[in-house]
Specification:
Largest sheet of chain A: 2 strands, antiparallel
CATH class of chain A: Alpha Beta
Structural class of chain B: alpha+beta
Low-confidence stretches of chain A: none
Low-confidence stretches of chain B: none
Strand content of chain A: 15-25%
Oligomer: heterodimer
Distance between the termini of chain A: 22 Å
Number of domains of chain A: 1
Mean pLDDT of chain B: 93
Structural class of chain A: mainly beta
Shape of chain B: globular
Number of strands of chain B: 22
Largest interface: A-B, 47 and 59 residues
Radius of gyration of chain A: 17 Å
Strand content of chain B: 5-15%
Chain lengths: 100, 653
Amino acid sequence: MPNTIGKEVYAFPNPPAPHRPVIFDPDICNGCNKCLACQMDVIYPNPEKDKPPILMFADECWYCGSCVDICPRPGAIRVNHPLMQRPIWRDRTMGKLYRL
Amino acid sequence: MFPFMRWPYPIRYDLESDLTTDVLVLGGGIAGCWAAISVAKRGMKVVVVDKADVVISGAGGAGCDHWLNTPNPCSKLTAEEIVEWECRTNGGYYNGLSRYIAARESYDTLLELEKMGAKVRDTEDEFKGAAFRDEKTKFLFAYDYENKFNFRVWGAGTKHEENFKVVLYNECKRLGVEIHNRVQVTSLLTEGGEQGARVVGATGVNIRTGEFFVFKAKATIICLSRPQRIWRFVSELSGLPPTRPHTCIGNGHAIAWRAGAEFTLMEKSITYHGWTDAQGYPCVHAQNAESSAHGCTMVDANGKEVPWVDRDGRVLKTVAERFRPAPGQKYLGERATNYEHRLPGLIPDLMERVRKGDFTLPFYVDLPGISEEERRVIWNMMIKQEGKYKWTTVDTFERAGFDPAKHQPQNYDLMVKGPVNWWQEQYRRFGEGGDCGGLVVDWNLRTNLEGLYSAGDQLFASNYHYHAATTGRYAGRKAADYVLRVSEPVITRRQVDDEKTRVYASLKREDGVGWKELNAASAMIMSKYCGNYKNEELMKIGLWSLRKMEEEDALTAYSSDPHKLGRTLDVLDIITICQMIIHASMARKASSKFLNFHRLDYPEVDPPKWHKFITIRQEKGRVIVGELPTDFWGPPKENYEAHNRDYVGLVKE
């Protein structure tokens, strides 16, 4: 959410959830748009040339990771695991718990 | 915050493209691509239509970790023996015809795939000397190391180009298959526009541009997966659903039904365990000892090991023992629940022992506690290669510091198998897992409609990547044979115009009900009136409610762009499928354990006189109920051979 303190405040509907199932790294992504092959067609081309695509229908993503698979630039896209389904694992020897 | 921009694609509402082909393939998933390749190799023109992008579309688009039920030179099992576990596990309600075809030709299909460039054996000697590897052929096997008929394969690939789907896509391109991406199929066209007549093509709409398509074809192969979102639809927080993308909603079921095609097993469903959306536990990660992490040791909160046992209750201490048949057992069938083929598993009274205090929740999968080789094959093959888990699990976990040699993932699968309440039981799964209802076909994989063939998940009681691939390849062959002896198809303009009006209707409305609410409402009707507890009166009300929705609410559905138009059309198909399910459920006047089908008004479970398939189809808009014996396909070996005298496989028998 953008910080609205000290700025003009607008009214608009709640964002859909999940909001960011995949995240683009604008420093690595060169806007080649190969990921537009998305199974669900939720990734749209950026009107600005060479810029990362737009995640248009975030709530329809099914986390298949095909966008990451087809991306020729490692790190340009990553899957952002849904928060409510972050699993836990533990260290076998120390017993310490970790959460994804 | 909210993306908001001018529609990035040209808008072509009402523009129509008319295309003609020998064979039309609806759905470019695993079955569809294989069907197209098969046709193209016979020198015919073939068009593939897919609502996504064929390069990665469909349930098999993200990968494949194992290739099942495959007689091969490393195994002594025959095709007849191999399909037996599915028949037994499903109490006879299974597709003996397509499963047998798949078993007969799946090894050929795998070798053909390898020729196209897919990785199906351990060519880099990554698992040299492992108990699950055949040293001569370098094939890796899963589940049963003695009988060697389930291959571990690199379906997601070590790089993108190796992904099975990408390999198939490239082969389609090489063979000149004409592909129409982002075109959602909306109807089948029939001779004279009549229900039950020969299928002569289909219509579709592009869900980026809104352009309308009319495909004329001598033969059509329908490979449009299976219904989902019937009993439950969560429009947000869709989470990590199990095996099929939300694009698979059963468009094929709906359009074939409207055209008069015959279906069976539509009354079958699976009890909901809370894992098809984000409200469920993330159970299909690394945690599931019954599938991806099969054979792995499981420990409780205190590190106490949960015993693995064979079908007779013998404790299996080593991992290797968990991949061998019990004394006297012929072979192990994946997911087999019947005694003859049951896989080793965790002790069956585990939850009772938790209640007694023998084990403390939660459980963990002891990946670090098993051999390096077994751990690597679970993590890098069974999980990483299985479709979506390459990125969503393996990459995500590893980026977060997970090390399978040190860390034990928590198990959620066992937590959701406790007692469930009534309301949860009402939610069911249709196509979200297991085998489900679909099209009835003959030994040519032809439906009851002339000109309409089918393969993959579109068939009744179907499942798995190997099955989609092999039946697709087979259906392509049969459809091509048909094309050689058939007259030119004729399309009826009136049918096209009526369909066009139906398809575009929601775009012409300013306001009303959106596709998400419509789907949530149909799911609620199904869970109220056709859930685990059914009777004639409940289902009558359900059918009446669905029709009312169709006649009133659906006529107010609006779509503001071509993408949402596709989603709206999906939900209209879902409402049709819900009605098919109720018709089939009303026709079966008995309960059945195997179909997970419970009627309060007919409580007798699996009475012999109801041991048969119930079929449904439409004729002049009326629902026609029929029946077929559970072995309607006759003796499989004889019938297969009689229908495939000219087939020359890659394997010499």
